[in-house]
Amino acid sequence: MIEVPLRTTRLLPHTLLGRIGLVVLAAAITVLPWLVPSYYAELVTSAMIAAMLALSMQLLVGATGLVSLGHGAFYGLAAYVVYLISPENVALPIWITLPVAMLVAGAAACVVGLFSLRTTGFFFLMVTLAFGQMIFFVFHDTKLGGGTDGAYLTKPLISAFGATLDLPRKQKYLGTYYVALVQLVAMYLGLAMLLQTLFGRALEGIRVNEHRMRAIGFDTFKIKLIAFTLAGALAGAAGHMWALHRGFVNPEIVGWHQSAEALLMILLGGLGSLHGPILGALALTGLGEVAQLLTERKLLVEGLVILAVVILLPRGLAGLGSRNTSNGAGDRHG
Amino acid sequence: MTTPIQRLNRRALIKAGAATVAASVIPTRWAIAQTKPLKVGLMLPYSGTFAQLGENITHGVEMVLAEKGGKLGGREVQFVKLDDESKPELGPQNAERLVKRDGVDVLIGTVHSGVQMGIHKVVKESGTLTLVPNAGNAAVTRDLCAKNVFRTSFTNWQPAYAMGLALGKKGVKKASWITWDYAAGTESAEGFKQGLEAGGGQFVSLLTLKFPETNFQPLLAQIQGLGVDAIGAFFSGGGAVQFVKDYAAAGIKVPLCGSGFLTEGTLGGQGAAADGIETALHYGDGLDTPKNNAFRAAFKAKANREADVFAVQGYDAAQLLAAGLEAVKGNIEDEKTLHAAMEKAKIDSPRGAITMSPQHNVVQDIYLRKVTNGQNKIVSTIAAQLADPGTGCKI
Amino acid sequence: MTLSSFLAQILNSLQYGLLLFLISSGLTLIFGVLGVINLAHGSLYMIGAYTAFVVARAVGSLWIALPVAMLGGILLGSLLERFLFRYFYKREHLDQVLLTFALILLFEEGRSLLVGNDFYSVPIPAALDFSIPIVEGFSYAAYRFVVIVCCLVLAAALFVWIERTKMGAIIRAAAERPEMVDALGIDPRRVHLTVFAVGTALALTAGALNAPLSSVYPNMGDNLLIISFVVVVIGGLGSVSGAFWSALLIGLIDTMGKAYAPKASGLAIYVLMAIVLLWRPNGLFGQRGT
Amino acid sequence: MGDPAATTPANALVLCTEGLSKSFGGLQATRDVSLSLHRNELHAVIGPNGAGKSTLVNLLAGEFTPSAGRILLEGRDITSLNVWQRTRAGVARSFQRTNIFLPLTVHENVRLAAQARTGTLASLLSRAANSRTLFEITDLAIERVGLTQSRLRPSGELSHGEQRQLEIAMTLATDPKVLLLDEPLAGMGQEEGERISALLKSLARDHAVLLIEHDMDFVFKVADVMTVLVEGAVLASGTPQSVRESAAVQAAYLGGHA
Question: Above 0.85 for ipTM, yes or no?
Answer without folding.
Answer: no
